[in-house]
Amino acid sequence: MIYLDFPLPQLQQTVEIMPGVLWLRMPLPFELDHINLYLLESQEGWYLVDTGLNTSLTRECWLAVLDDLDKPLAGVLVTHMHPDHLGLAGWLCDRFRVPLWMTEREYFAARALLPGPNDAARWTDEAYFIQAGLPPDMVKERVAGQQGFGAVVSAVPLAYRRLVDGQVLDIGGNSWQVMVGRGHSPEHACLYCADKRVLLAGDHILPSISPNIGCYATEPEADSLRDYFESLMPFSALPDDVIVLPAHNRPFRRVADRVISLVQHHYTHLNALLDFCYQPRTLYECLPTLFNRKLTGYNLYFAVAECLAHLNFLLSERRMGRRMNNAGVYEYHSVSMQRYPAGPAELKGGMGIFPV
Asked: Where would I find the Metallo-beta-lactamase domain in this sequence (predicted)?
């Protein structure tokens, strides 16, 4: 993987990646303190890819950026429904009367999540954390602390235009192919332009951190890590000179190398869990094996989901067993010590990147 030497965009400014492709950044109030957003030029105007959170600062920044462009806003494309990507989509679409483009599962997941739980019972959320083995005070804190994301996501438009895997969009005379990734979110849309040698990767492939691959209380038996592995495969076939424009950190080349390192990262976690669970362990007991830092708040929430995704994968591979103890907590134990490939050479050999 090779980072590219573009200057970092300053607040309310854009950086030209190439003619018709602009890069800008919006601030985030998290440990990961920014999101990369992109603008694609067409004859009728500019299409923006992802939006940032619904905050007054982000709205102010967008108005300044759009005011400096030589063409109007033509549409809003959202890679997936997480708040830092979707947050201002509704506001922008309504203000400029332009269409929203998303995949079906992302759009309707956002519509479902926006109101929050309303009057729905929270016992499934509670069971999710109890089964993970969290102490009772943490269970209570996590269930009480879960809020709908409406505070940082503007109202989702009532109509959208569907993005589908393999679909080709004509933007400015250039063909942008939709490549769907799964695991980080249900139906994450990436955009690839073969002529420009550019991939808009969103959160699916990040250069210096691994996207969160999690199983949450809404679908605790999901096999999200398998979904992620399987949807990475097409990206490993892209040419080495493709410029990858991620949602966080810096643009880079050699996407196949990054795919291999991401798979290796998860294989390392899978092997660590197999080693640690030589005797029965709860998910909560497994967390220090995967995360060597103190976990609180949302970091704990995401860590539980990511650990569960790895354990569920091992269960589906029949390398891990699971039983529920008398306290209603799942205990996991290794039933096979067959290890996953440890190094890049093993992963590259015969394209044996993904489990069978």
From this structure: 34-248
CA 82 from centre of chain? 8
CA 328 to CA 345: how far, in whole Å? 42
Same domain, 14 and 66: yes
Q: Containing domain of residue 287, as a range?
A: 275-349
Is residue 220 located within the same domain as residue 288? no
Task: Give yes or no for a contact between 191 and 103, defined as CB atoms under 8 angstroms apart.
Answer: no
Domain shared by 82 and 202, yes or no: yes
* CATH number of the domain where residue 300 is located: 1.10.10.10
